[in-house]
Amino acid sequence: MHFTEVTDELVESYRQDGFVVLDQALPPEQVTELHAAAEQLCRGELGAVEGAPAPEPTDDVLRQFLCIHHPHKASDAALAALHAPRVVETLTAVIGPNVKAMQSMLFIKPEGKPGQAWHQDEFFIPTRDRSLTAAWIALDDATIENGCLWVLPGSHRRGVLYPDREQDDLRFDCTVEAFDFPYSDDDAVPVEVPAGSAVIFNGYLLHRSLPNTGRHGLRRALANHYMSAESLLPWQTVPTGVHIGKHDYRDIVMVAGTDPYAYKGIDDLARPHSRPDKDGGCDR
User: Fold this and answer.
1) Torsion sign (Cα): 108, 134, 254, 87
2) Measured at the alpha carbon of residue 65, what is the angle toward residues 62 and 66, in degrees to the nearest 5?
3) Dihedral sign of CA atoms 49, 50, 56, 61 in order
């Protein structure tokens, strides 16, 4: 469902369906700033992007990229979007008063670029308390034609992670796909949203996107991931000598409330990098 304000109905819809759409999550001027930041990132003007193609003096440089991970590490505009007030207000309603972010992803997705197979974000970013929540912010109108999100409403409710496998479907990037879940593609719902809107969804919600088959340019989006600050984040490799029960990834950004683990400090670990899209193969 689409909402313009954070209400009890929004929270209940999120609880039942696993996702909501927050209209006008970002003002138009902020969307424009993020367009400019995407251009700068792809041109290497904000620093190195690991795995990026060599910069070329062309107007089509964005079309060389599918997705850049951790743009907030290099771009002030992307960092500001992590703190977007209307998004954060929604997050505190569905997560709780203390919220931290650990990842941002800038999807460029030009014509012909692939989508991502069925997956659950908690598979990639495990939280101790199941609080992982995504804010997928459209920077262009997202349509079926240009590869909008598709979701399986209610698929988060069991709170289980389904099996995964490698896939060779050219419609999708190199990411593994979830399978053996009690839903079919016929149950999927496309989430078409205008630029500036945000799809807020649960980390256990099954979702995917299809290729950009349109002829109308890019389908840019900023996907930020958040969770409760009360939970440890056992993400990435467990350091040598650290018990898995105590592992806590601390390259985070607080966006609301207080951090009960502030005494641990903040690490600076992640760097912007480009996601492979099967053009040239997948390094697995």
Assistant:
1) positive
2) 125
3) negative
The tens digit of pLDDT for each residue in 208-219 reads 999 999 877 899
- Buried-exposed string 235-272: b where 16+ CB fall within 10 A, e elsewhere: beeeeeeeeeeebbbbbbbbbbbebebeeeeeeeebeb
Burial class, 141, CB count within 10 angstroms (exposed 0-12 / middle 13-18 / buried 19+): middle
Instruction: Give per-residue pLDDT as tens, 27-48.
Output: 999 999 999 999 999 999 999 9
Task: Tell me the CA distances in angstroms from 47 to 34, 71, 219, one per residue in order.
Answer: 16, 10, 23
State the pTM of this model: 0.95
**How far is 256 from 12, CA to CA, in rounded Å?**
21
Asked whether the beta carbons of 166 and 284 are under 8 A apart, the reply is yes
C-alpha 10/C-alpha 13 separation (Å) is 5
Q: Which residue do the tokens 């979830």 mark?
A: 178
Q: Do 134 and 225 touch, CB atoms closer than 8 A?
A: yes
Q: By three-state DSSP, how is residue 43 classified? A: coil
Secondary structure (H, E, C), 105-143: EEECCCCCCCEEEEECHHHHCCCCCCCCEEEEEECCCEC
Say if CB 60 and CB 128 are below 8 A apart. no
**Number of helices (H), then strands (E), in the chain:** 5, 15
User: Residue 35: which of 85, 71, 4 has the closest Cα?
Assistant: 71
Question: What is the DSSP code (8-state) at residue 150?
Answer: E
Distance of alpha carbon 33 from alpha carbon 81, whole angstroms: 10
